[in-house]
Amino acid sequence: MKNTSLVLIIVLFIAVGVLYILHFSGSKSNGPGKKSGKEGNGSSALTIGYIKVDSLVVNYDFAQEMHDGFTKQQEAFTKEYGEKRSLFESQAASFQEKVQRGGFLSQDRAAQERDRLVAEEQKITKLDQELSQKLAQIQSENNKQLLDSIMNYVKIFNKDKKYSYILNSSELLVGDESNNITKEVLVGLNARYTKSKSK
After folding, report:
1. Using CA atoms, how far apart are residues 182 and 129, in angstroms rounded to an integer?
2. How far apart are CA 182 and CA 169, in angstroms?
3. pLDDT tens-digit profile of 23-35?
4. Right CATH number for 45-197 from 1.10.3720.10, 2.40.70.10, 3.30.428.10, 3.30.910.20?
5. Taking the model in full, what pTM does it have?
């Protein structure tokens, strides 16, 4: 146990010595808050901006238009499926009632109607899956288009602004509000979108 303590004290002593040497042997310009390396040779300081992407998407006119179009398609698909499902359920209830009161002329005729209803239900289940896949594909394409639009504009925006980095605020734990460029980017995106619609 004493050997372990002695080794630990020696390691700490060496570490403090190294820190002492590094601190006092460094150049005077490398004090706290000053940049080192290339920046001392006149190059610009590191600049960072961040965007609140969720806020940007909510207020971006193009995103709103795509969302409205998607919602209309979703409603149309839901209506189509709902109508077919309601018709099937009505036919199934009618079949059940007819079976219970002995309304079929023969067992064969009842079996034929039952088989037809089973096939109809399978078609409706397949339609539901197809419509869900179509909606997922539309949503995926919309997301890709929206991301492309935002990324292309941010690259254009940064040609003038010359940020070293532009971050998504959802990945940011702490950020100075003066580095938040969401409003600026949103104004530019909406202006570009309005201009493209007027052509």
Report:
1. 38
2. 10
3. 444 433 333 333 3
4. 3.30.910.20
5. 0.65
